Known about the structure:
The chain is mainly beta. Helices cover about 10% and strands about 45% of the residues. It has eleven helices and 49 strands.
Amino acid sequence: MRLVYTILFVFSGIFVSAQQIPGKVINAITGEPLAYAKIILPDGSQKLSNLDGSFKIDAQNKNDLKITISYLGFYSRNFEISPNKRFTVLQLYPDYEKLSTVYLSSSKNPANGIVQKAIANRNSNDPQKALDGFEYTSYSKFIIDNNENPIKLTTDTTNTEIATIVNVARAYLSEKVTKYSYNKREGEKEEVLGLETAGFEEPIYDVISLDIYPTSFYENKYSIFQTEYAGPLAENAFKNYEYRILDTINNDRPSYLIYFKPKREKRIASLEGVIYLDTLNFGIQKTEARLIGQIDLEIKEDYEFAPSKEVWLLKKRDIKIKPGSGGKDISVFGGSISLGTIQRRLSISSIFSKDTIQRNLYLDATTVNYDYNLDSIPKIKNTSAKIKVDPKANDRENSFWIDNRKEPFTSKDEATASYVDSIISTKHIARKIEVKKTMANGYYPLKFWDVRLNKLFKYNNYEGIRLGFGGKTNDIFSERFNVGGYFVYGFKDKKSKYNINANIYLNRPTETNLILGYTNDMEEVASFNYLKAPPKFYLIEPRFVNINFFYYYRKYYAGLEHRINPQLSTEIRFSKTDVLGAKDYAFAYEGEIYPDYSISTVGVSFTWEPFSEYLKTPEKSILIDGHSPRFTFQFDKGLSGVADGDFDFIRTGLKFEYELKRLDLSKTEVIVEGNYATGALPLTHTFHAYPNSSRQEAILKRFSIAGKTSFETMYYNEFYSDRLAMLHLRHTLPPIKFSNFFKPEIVLISRHAIGDIDNMDRHQNITFNSLEHGYSEAGLEINNIISGFGLSTAYRYGAYNLPGFNRNFAFKFTLNIKF
Length: 819
């Protein structure tokens, strides 16, 4: 049967390609393409050329076709085009008298007046602003396909056979049916009713999170695949776009055909295209937008008028991405797709690199909306998940898809569904997905065991080379629990360190887990680790290399973690820690000296991202799009007399993180952190401000890797606090593009810390300062000079400024590698 589908696809592809007459409309004088030129076909129907002037016309037979092409400011011309020609170039000559009356950006431009009215009427035309509530259903088909048919037939004297099926048909296909509900109070929610992914037994939920509907053209920012562009009907649209009337379309509801073009495309991410605006209410009837550069992105939207509510409703959207021809940089989304695997934080251009997939592939996402109910004001359950997946979504019968497919499921699709099974098997796609997802969290899967990568090798001045092995069991071993740990050895201190732990899954959908563990290791003095801090994986930890003040410890711990809702995750933990010494340090308390001591604590921690969007599946919550701010909190209570604990104390931390991204690719980051402790607190459990400088006199001897939230001019062991506040400000300027491969980023940095410490005399055999006068440093980074490497400088000023320039100045390199 698979062979039959393939043969049908081959011949259908040959037949279809023979019915297309390709061509291009250009300016006869300059040779520049004419975007969205009007093409009138023999039957009186019309179509527009693409942004690059290209077009394709269906030919029903081998006779020449007579067409008319017109363009504002140019003479209209009649042409005869032949289906026998492989490519036709059609030239239009400018009418200079008419061109002199065409204004692109002045206040006299009539297009500006129409666009201004469309902007003014956004609230009455945007369904989410104009209506109190509504519901509808949507069908989506997501494809990675071949743009050209690579199959060739070989004929010999005995028979005809398929010579090769190397790049046959598509490489990926998925379908989705979604129910949308909206009311003004709770906003919009999505429920995925059906999900079908060719070739995969388990649901590929990443496709749902990637295939997010673009926002509306009525919004100030048009967001598609997690990348934002300036909206052509935004409040400040005239700062970013030029407009021109191309035509007036006479239908049941006449429309203006408006061409929009970026004014500041080098600074602001912008689209180029046409928008059909209703002549009566100035609502959107249709849109076509395109970006041509390293990636060719095309968006087409069709709307349907609802007379009962006097609004235009989105009926169909088609998004196509294919290889470009170079030119301007285009960022489409923060992930890439390779035969069904999502690799976030990689450039979309990697889809088409020769190391990934052949350059004749394209991506096509088609969506059809239907069954609108505009009289409904649905009750939306108060849940923080933006998208919910029905437990039966991945197991729908064929009758469900027959009823809900609003795009034909062709023989080509059937061939794909059969063929992808073998692709996934032979190319080990499921394994590649598993590896990439696991590595994103710092592990590498080996059958039932996930190897923990950051335990393999480290180096610091205290241990020297630190080698080891660690990891945890995965779901292949058990879906009810995992067991993990690590073993490492330091060749300088000649000590072994190890951990063993277990996570028991009490409720996987809510991520409710019982945690048990034991650790025998070392820790930096005065470090404060949030239990629920977002997971971070570093192959290289810049500060760790130069730290020289550690303490050894043995820790027993038990905890319970639970995700209250997708945005709020918590953990309660009890631990007993035996501190086994930190160099010559000792803690003096109530007449006794403690070189070694025990700390028993009970604590609670949470992380809260109120505006981040999550996908709720039957198994777990998946982050779709992270939005600022993020709050992380922790409270620890030291318990004297409990499990042999020696001291009573309270220790707290609160961190606030905010990031503002702009359309010109600049961004501003703010991190505020406050720590407070009271009671009998040894130095090992106080706070530091993440110093990252050794005490070497020469600047180059202090040369190292700069951190993101560390103080680059602050010396190790210089300050300790039991009350500490820190402020980090980073402003990244738009990238400076010298070439496609050399686009450095300049970052302006300002860091500040203030703190104090009581009972300094309790800390024996060590000298340090408090931060009561406030510490400040200013920095400058030039990132991404070569392959993620850059340079960084910082200068220490203010109350703790030291004598001499060298002692206050830091010169380092930066490392920003995106995985």
